Structure prediction request, 352 residues.
Amino acid sequence: MAKQFMKGNDAIIVGALAAGCRAYYGYPITPASEIAHAAALHFPALGGVFIQAESEVSAINMVYGTAGMGIRTMTASSSPGFSLKQEGLSYCAGAELPCVVVNIDRGGPGLGNIAPEQADYFQVTKGGGHGNYRLIALAPNGAQEMCDLTMKAFDLADKYRNPACIMADGITGQMMEVVEIPEAKPLAVDHSSWCVAGTPETSGHLVSSIFLESTDLEEHNLKLDRKYKEVMANEVMFEEYRTADADLVVVAYGVVSRIVYSSIDAAREEGMKIGLLRPITLWPFPSAPIAAHAARGASFLAVELSTGQMVEDVQLAVAGKTPVHFYGRCGGMVPKGQELLAEYRKIMEGGN
Prediction:
């Protein structure tokens, strides 16, 4: 298998093309612009479509239209641009259209800065737009996963006819690593039962999210809810490191999880029993394994590039059985291993 040294942002396009995506619509924004640059280079060369839309609002609506044709399609942005896509994402979820959207998080709120953050967690995992809907959300922690999880996102989007999101921080998007280039997958997805393709066979299909009768809209919402429960039951992804005997389980994702790995090894050398649980799917969230560690008496530390968002899902999973601590940096600041080690010592010594 071929390997190439590339940015995480570029690896997203490698994964998208290997997954059979052939339509990209977007607007450049730091630190996600390389995704659009790579799409502009490679999509037309492979017979696909690249359009730099006039806005993020236009881009997500182009995705809506292309997804309605049964074509694998995507867009990407960073935090302020992702905010602009929320209405369109609600429409896509309501119309049950499979698509992939990427958010390379930067500092906020507002214009903030272009440094890495994870403060879009609520927006991505709780549904930033209106209505009862969810995004399937995956959080890579390196360039290889930026590629591989993008491919996974397309498969999940098709399986559940729902938008899927890749949520990564600015560091993961900008860092360069060796990536194994995957082989292109033959597309075996049949959208003919619902898509509108301009053919006689699909002329009776209607792609819409409007239900004017309250009884019809309630029925549709309950149908979506059943689908989301199926996602929660079947698609949770996570990774554990040295958690079997851990008195303190650190919960972290994205670039933060990479820092936690080495800090845990250092803590173990000092005799502290600490492990890492890394959510790979932010939604559905790995509540069950967290609850299992809480049941055996482990306490928890959520480490995030925010003032505290994922920590609320950890608290819900723990359900008050054991303490849940939080350590966060924000505004583009990233914790160092020694910082985390000091936090472990404080918690293990009984501090808050």
